[in-house]
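Work Package 3 (structural annotation) set out to generate three-dimensional models for the target panel prioritized at the project kickoff. During this period the team completed the workflow that converts sequence records into discrete structure tokens, so that structures can be stored uniformly alongside our sequence database. As a representative example, we reproduce one entry of 287 residues exactly as it appears in the project archive.
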Amino acid sequence: MANACNERKNIQGHPCFGGNHHKNGRMHLAVAPRCNIKCGYCSRRHDCANESRPGVTSRLLTPPEAILKVREVMESEILGPIIKVIGIAGPGDPLANEETFETFRLVKEEFPHLILCMSTNGLLLPEKIDLLNEIGLHSLTVTINALDPAVGGRIYSHISYHGKKYSGEEGAAILLANQLEGLRRAADYGMTIKVNTVFIPGVNEGEVPLIGRKVKELGAFVMNVMPIIPQAEFAGIEPPTPEKLEEVRLANESIIGQFKHCRQCRADAVGLIGQDHKFAETGCALP
């Protein structure tokens, strides 16, 4: 097994990797607007201040604005003591945005005790993993929704890779190859890895245990099976019931550890999981 001999990095402070999510919080910095794949379940068309879902932010930050926000939060009597993790999770894909790396460098220089965390679709992971290691990334989340490119082709309409657009099954095959190679190399560096899988009934249900076995073999630490949020091309799909989701997670526990406290956070989430600090003033606005 990849990375079997590597000592696990301390995850006690990370609420999304098994740390105490009742005491330890995280701060997501929305510095990465551009994305390089089109997922059928993803929509970033509007933002409501009381809405919590991936890809949503009240406003984008530049790296200098982001470090100012980190200073503000760390100086807060309420939030400062609980924030253990600085994460970048969008609203696009962090690896498709140079602002991600500049922001991490600023945070590492001023707050070296904070855990650096990132969530990615993994398309650019093989070519960016060395840089992430140099920056000191501790925790990595990769969203993998299928091992079969035919299934992936139903989930991703296209990817944009090195200046060319690849559609359907062809694009899904490139994405999958890069996800698995990037994950393997991240594990070799000793990063703590979580794999997110969006459970889409009738589409990728059979893929979930296969993903679990493969990513465990490559060095993933934990898996997070998330229910689909019906929107965009999958707006008409029925999400799994809580009972069905729990059934799938329980079946997967014999393969790889399951993270069950995910709230499918916004790209600008701050605070404890499920108890986020009030977002910036904003209305519910369509483009």
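The two ends are 47 Å apart (CA to CA).
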